[in-house]
Structure formats: structure tokens, C-alpha cells
Amino acid sequence: MRPVRTVLAGALLGALTLAGCGQSTTTASQSGSASPSTAAPAPGFPVTVEAGNGPVTIGARPERIVSLSPTATETLFAVGAGSQVVAVDDQSNHPAEAPRTDLSGFKPNAEAVIAHKPDLVVLANDTDGIVAELTEVGVPVLLEPAAAKLDEAYDQITDLGAATGNAAGAEQVVAGMKKKIEQAVAAAPGDAKLTYYHELDTTPYSVTSSTFIGQVYALFGLTNIADKAPDLAGGYPKLSAEFVAKADPDLIFLADTKCCGQSRDTLAERPGWSKLSAVTGDRVVPLDDDVASRWGPRVADLAQQVGEAVRKAAAE
Amino acid sequence: MTGPSRRAGTAGAQSRAPDPAATEGEAPSRPPGGQEAAPADPGAPGGPGSPGSGRTPEPGGLRDPGSPRRAAGLRPGPLLLALGALLAALTVGLLAGAAGIAPRQAVLQLIDWLPLLTADAGLTPVEQSLLLELRLPRVLLAAAVGGLLAIAGAAYQGVFRNPLADPYLLGAAAGAGLTTTAAIVFLAGDDVSLVIPAAAFAGAVGGVLLAYTLGNVAGRGGGTATLVLAGVAVSSFLTAGQTFVQQLGVDELERIYAWMLGDVGGGWEKLALAAPYAAVSVGVLLLHGRVLDVLSVGDDEATGLGLNAARARLAVLLAASLATAAAVAVSGLIGFVGIVVPHVVRRLAGGSYRVVLPLSLLGGAAFLVLADVIARTVLAPAELPIGVVTAFVGAPFFVAVLRMTRGEGA
């Protein structure tokens, strides 16, 4: 799934709400997760984790986890909680061994979730009051909404590690991500003054620097052409094709390779875009739609891909 | 309404006998331009200039005394005014845009492209191709779509004698919505930029045909009330299907909504796709102004005047649906234009369909070009979906026109 799109479409979850939740998570969870990681790693329960739905206390190590969030699924498997996961939603396509079911994180059905007898449910969107429904029947729920900043993504990984008894694994994952991203940033020239355009779909929707993915690009000192869009247009403005052509960005990142089969060739066929310098100069970077719209451990891989492209473009 | 229309079926059949010439000339592709003038002026059928889209002097001015305004054909004043409005809109459309090209440069560049003229606009190759490949076709596509929807809406309102009729009444929008959603969801991963117009066109035509067939099965004789109800049923059914398919691909919601809210971008390719259908349907509709005028007095009277009401209605419906399908295929579901522009025209220029049809074509074109200018400049460089603009700007405008012309009743 590309939660970015889902969040976009389901305008119910305002960006402000998300950012608000995220920030409270940031401050509180660091203190919450510090104790289990410093205490004895194996028992570590009961543990209280500060999630998007407030403090959640988990009595014992969960063994039947249901994840309705593709990002959470990736995180759970990365921190070593994979064997404790019994079901993931229909959009959780990574890693391949995740027990994918027809559960939906977009239109969640409490009864279908409960049928898996979960002792922990992780989700990204509280659609149709699913959190309240599950809490009511005594299932602990962690709401881990779309991260607005890298630090929030790290916190969510730490939270999920603590909540599943894999605090050490989570710590490793976060440290690994930080190292990868630092290396990628260090390897790319920071003063290349390059502009970029990140495409979500062919409409074309883009992202501004205020979004999670936009902040990843900002690490490399890239200038986002979509930032010229007024705030009113939101973090995901539908840009004018004219404007993109006129702005002629140095780099074009395509996050619509899987959904819409886009590539440098299809860009060249679009009216008015064939002469773009990124198209003629082979600086169109195809991304994995999923990685580019999630805020899990694979963000580090994305950062490496971006860094590589920046290095190549700056060297020209 | 059911009474007269039901009788019209039998009456229409009877009328075929005494007037074989009319029946012969009446094929959907070749509309009966002068034929409806026959009862009023027996010398007219086939006479020179009679299928001239209503611009020729009206020989049958006395034939519908109940509505004196209908006697008037299209006068040059309103026509020139509408043409002027369209030209002005096109100019604004060409000069405004997100790319920040100075109007002066754009004008010079346009002059440069005219044969035998040269002017140095100082635009880069990228800017030139932007004007030629993005902005020019976009403005023209907006004009084409606006004109098609407005003339189709006017025709539907005439056929159904219902001021609330719009081009989507018979399931064109719901049908196109279903097929397009299916294309987006089931072909996810492919580049569907050319599949979508085909899917939308097929869906729009399919939706209307389904409604028409259902309407004829339910109520024989081509009654309009039954047809409207069939359209409502088919629309609901297809929309339910669309929602279901959409649930299967929640991932693609954003693309589905983007299509539904309308978009007139896409370059010359889309313009070329719509052009043949647009030309045929507009031609047929413009020739049917008098038919709609006759139909507007009621099926019985129309039959009395020698018109096969059911058949004439079918021809107009087919043409209007073709126009709608062509517009939907290249632009998605743009609301409001089709229902409101004909009313504005009626208020300002008179109720005869020989006036309403051509002026709706021009007015709808001008309106949508301007709506698109707003859509792509108000949040520039971001864009608003054009469907949002048409209703948001159009509704107050419509109310203003209603107020200005209060008491004139159209």
C-alpha cells in the first residue's frame, strides 16, 4: 500500500492531527522505551508505550500480533517480531513472508480482526472508530500514524520493539538506518544546488518539503520545485504540468513506477515534457512506490538511492 | 406526461403512413433538417438551405402560437456576442498559466507560429513546447468539452422537457465512472493514459444504451418519464458497481477521484480522440433545433405537425449521448456546465432550441475555458480540479443571471 495516497484520499485525518499525535509520541515514547531497553531484555513486561492513541500498556509479550499497516508490518519483521505476527493487511506486501490476509487497513472490520484472536493490533489509521472497538473488547491497540519526520519514524520503530519484546532489535534497526542515511548524505555533495520533482502519480500529484519524504530529500540539500505551491494546496499539491516543464528540475523521482508504469520513456512521451533536461540528460530516478510512501526501515534504502542520484547529477 | 407520450407511440405509427417522405429521410446519421417544416410549409422539404441549422429565415413562424419567442431564429447579435465571449476566453486561457510566461511573450510566440509571420518572443525551446503542446491544446480541449457538455445538456432538457435534465441523466457518468475505475484498479501497474479515454467512452455509451433499453422494456412507446426513471435506476446500479470496484483498489483512490473531478489537460492527443465524435454529434444536434422546438409543444402536437416524436427523440438522444461520451472520455466527470449553461442562454437569448443549441455550444466552451483558467491559476503552481471550479464559480453566476432576468421566465 501507499499510505501517503490513502491518507491523502481519506482527508478525515488532517495533517495537523497527524503531526500533533506524532509529536506527543516523540517526547513521551523516548522516556517510555528507555526503561525496557535498559532493563532486562527478555521479560520487560508489562510495558507502557506512548502511541497515537495515548499510553498503551501491554501486560505480556504479544504472540498474536495483527498489523493493519504496511509500514508497521515492515518494522515488526525488521526488529525481529516476525514470528509473533499472525496476520497482516492486504496491502502489507513486504517482506514476502508476512502472513498476508484479506484484512483491510483502509476499511477495517473489527470482527474480522478479532477473529484472528490478536493480543496486539498495530494500525496507522483510526478509521470508523476501529481503535475504540478493539480497545472495548480488551485488545491492546497501537496507533502508529504516518510519520511527519524521520525522528518520528525512529520512535515508532523503537515503540514497536518495546511493545513486542524486541527492544534490542529495534535499537539495532534504528542505529543501522541512521548510519546508512548519514553515509549517504556524507557521500553526496551538499552544495550541488540541484532542484527536484517527486511524482506521486501522473495527474501529476507531487509532495512538498513539509512531507516526510520531502524531508528525506532536504537532507541532501535538494530544492523541491513543488514548494512554490501555496500552503493552501497542502503537502501533496496537484501540480500544473506546465509548471513542471517550466521549472525544468535537475532530478525527477518517480514514485509511480508500480501503480502507473511510469518511466523516463513515458515522461518523454508526455506533451511538453520531452525536452526536460532530466529526461534528455537521463536524470529520471525510478523509485519503488511502496518504499517512497512508507516510513519504515526501508527509508534508509531510499535515502541511499537519492544520494546516489545526487552524486551522479552533481558529477556531470 | 405518461398519457400523451404513451399515445404518441401509436399516433406516431399512424403518422408514418401519410408521410412516407419524412420517414425515409430520417436516419440518425442524417438528421431531418428541413423535414419538420413540412406541415407548415409544404414547399419546404428538400428545399435549398432548409437544413441550415436554424439560421435561415423561419418559414413556419406561425406554427406554435403558444410560444411567440420560439418563432425567432438565431439573430446575429447574440451569436456575435457569444463568439466574442469565446474568443476572449480563449485569449485569456492562452495567456494565463502556471509557467509564468509573460503575456507579451506568449502573444509574440503565437504570432510567430502563424504562417508568413515571424516574431521573436525570446522563449526557450522548453517554453515553446510548453505553449504548443500543453497550453494551446488544453485551452482548446476545455472549449470542446464545455461546448459538448452544454449542447448535450440543452438537448437532454429539450428531449425530456425537464429543466433539471443534464448530460449525465441517462447513466453516462455512472457508466464511465464504473469502467474507468475498473481500468484504473485492474490495470494498476500499467500506463493507462490511453486506456482511460476508451474505457470512459465505452462506459458512457454503455450506460446510456442500458438505460434506454431498460426504459423501452419498462414502458413501450418511448415515454420520457419512464426513460428518466430508467436512467436513475441504471445510474444507481452502475455507481454501486463503481464503489465496489473502488473498494477493491483503495490504493488507487486518489487517481479515481482525480479523474472524476475532471481534467482538461493531456495535449493534442486527447483533442484528436474527441474530435470526430464531437463533430458528428454537434452537427446532428445543431440540425435538430427545430425538432426540439416542435417536441417542446408536446408529442400530440408534434405528431399533428407530422413529426415522428419517438424517432426524433431517439436521434437527438443518440447525438447528445455521443457528445457526452466524447467529453467524458477526455475530461472525466465535469458537472454543472451541462445543466446551467443552457439555462443561462435561455434567459439571455430566448427559448427556441434553434437559439439555445448553438449558443450553449459557444457559451459552454467559453465558460469551461475560463473555469480552467481559474483552476490552474488560483493556487498556481498547484491546480484545483476543474469540477470544483465549475460549480463553485458557476453557481453564484447562475443565481446572478436568474436574478437579473427575474420575471422573464424561460
UniProtKB/TrEMBL annotation, chain A:
Q: Is Signal one of the keywords UniProt gives this record?
A: yes
Q: Write out the entry's keywords from A to Z.
A: Signal
Tell me the domain of life.
Bacteria
Specify the Fe/B12 periplasmic-binding domain's residue ranges: 64-314
| Signal peptide interval | 1-19
Cite the residue spans of the region called Disordered: 23-44
Where does this protein have compositionally biased stretches of type Low complexity? 23-42
- Would you identify the family this protein belongs to, as annotated? Belongs to the bacterial solute-binding protein 8 family.
Q: What is this protein called?
A: ABC transporter substrate-binding protein
Organism (species)? Planomonospora alba
Automatic annotation (TrEMBL), chain B:
Gene3D superfamilies assigned: ABC transporter involved in vitamin B12 uptake, BtuC
Magnesium in keyword set: no
Q: Where in the cell is it found?
A: Cell membrane
Entry's transmembrane regions: 79-102, 139-156, 168-188, 194-214, 226-245, 314-341, 353-378, 384-402
What keywords are assigned to this protein?
Cell membrane, Membrane, Transmembrane, Transmembrane helix, Transport
- Annotated region (Disordered) at 1-73
Topological type in the membrane:
Multi-pass membrane protein
Cross-referenced Pfam families: FecCD
Q: Locations of Low complexity compositional bias?
A: 32-43
Q: Which family, according to the similarity comment?
A: Belongs to the binding-protein-dependent transport system permease family. FecCD subfamily.
Name under which the protein is recorded: Iron complex transport system permease protein
Q: Which species is this record about?
A: Planomonospora alba
